[in-house]
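Sample intake — Lytic murein transglycosylase
Collected from: Sulfitobacter sediminilitoris
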Amino acid sequence: MKKLFLPAVLALSTSASTAVAFGGSFATFVEGLKSEAVANGIAPEVASAFFAGVRQDQSVLKADRRQGVFQLPFVHFARRLISNDRINRGRANAEKYDTVFDRIEQSYGVDRGVLLAFWAFETDYGTYQGDFNTANALVTLAHDCRRPELFRPQVLAAVELFEKGQFDPRTTTGAWAGEIGMVQMLPRDILENGVDADGDGKVSLKTSTPDALMSGGKMLQDLGWRAGEPWLDEVTLPADFDWSLTGLETIKTIAEWRALGVKPRNGPLTDGLAASVLLPQGHKGPAFIAYPNFRVYFDWNQSFTYVMTAAYFATRLQGAKVFDAGTPEPGLDGGQMKVLQTRLQARGHDVGGIDGILGAGMRAAVRAEQARLGLPVDGWPTPTLLSLL
C-alpha cells in the first residue's frame, strides 16, 4: 500500500549544536556534520565511514512538499484510511500478539488499540515500511532550509546508532522523513526508547514485531501517556450548545461538560479528567471529547486530521461504533483554503504558512473571524466565511 500521509514528525529536543550553519554546498554541509559528530565523541573513522557516499535525495524533497492528502476533511480522511479489512487485520494482530500487548499495557500503560492504529497507519501493519535510504533522507532534510532544526539531531543520532552497530547508512531504508521500522521511529527515539523485546540482543524495528510494538509503547510513555486513561470518546451535543467552547483551547472537567449537555454516544465518559470538545468538521459534523492522552498524539504527528483519525481508529479497534458523520457544511478545496489562509494572514493571523492545510493555527484564526462575523464559532472554514472575508 502506498503511504497516504505525512510520516510522524516528533517533538524533538535540540542542543546548542543545532545552531551550526545549514544550507550552502551539500558537500560542505556534510563535512560540517562529520565534524560535529566527532566533536560529540564519535571516532573520526566512524564518522567518515557513515558519511562516505551520503548523497542529496531530490525525491525526499519532493515528498516533503507533496502533502495533498491533508487537505481532506476528517470524515473523508478517516473513511479513506479505515476499512473493514484494516479493522479485521488489526483485531487479528491483537490476538496474535496478545502476550506482547499485555506486556506493553503492564509496562507502559498504553492500550493495544492505540499502537495497533499507529501500526496500521504508519506501515499497514508492517507491510510497507518505505524504501528511501534513511541516511540520505535525514541529511537531505537537515540540509534543506525549511526545518533543519528537526533533522540535524536525527542525523547525529543515526551516527550513534551506526557506532553501536544498529544502523547501516548504505542499506537502512524507511520513510522519506527518516523514520524506520513498523511503527516508524526516528533515530533519536530509537536510541532513547528502543526495546529488545524478543531477547535476541538487538533492537530490530523493521523485522521484529515485539521490538517495534514495545518500543512504540515505551516512546508513548516517554511522551507523557497516562496509564489506564482514555484518549477519545464520541459525544452528542445539544442544539443550543455554545460552539465557542469547542477546541483544544477550552478545557473543562467531565462534570462541567455533562452540565452543559454533553452526552456520550458509546458508553460512559470518564469522570475525574479534564477534557476538550472537538468538532473536526464543524458544529454539524461529528463531535468528540478529548482527554489528556489525546494531546500526546501531537508529539507523534502534528497533523490534526491524522491525530483525530488515529485516535478514533484506536477506539474502533477496541469496540467503539462508527462515528455519526452528521451533515457537515461543505468545506473548502485546496485552492480555496490557500485563498482563505492568505486573507487570514492579511488580517494579522498566524496560519502557519500558505499550504492549503487546516492546521491548529488556521483553526484558531478561523474561530476568531467567525466570532467577529457572528458565525458559529466552530473552527470549520466554509465558503460562507471565505466570501465574507
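Post-analysis note: The first helix runs from residue 26 to 39.
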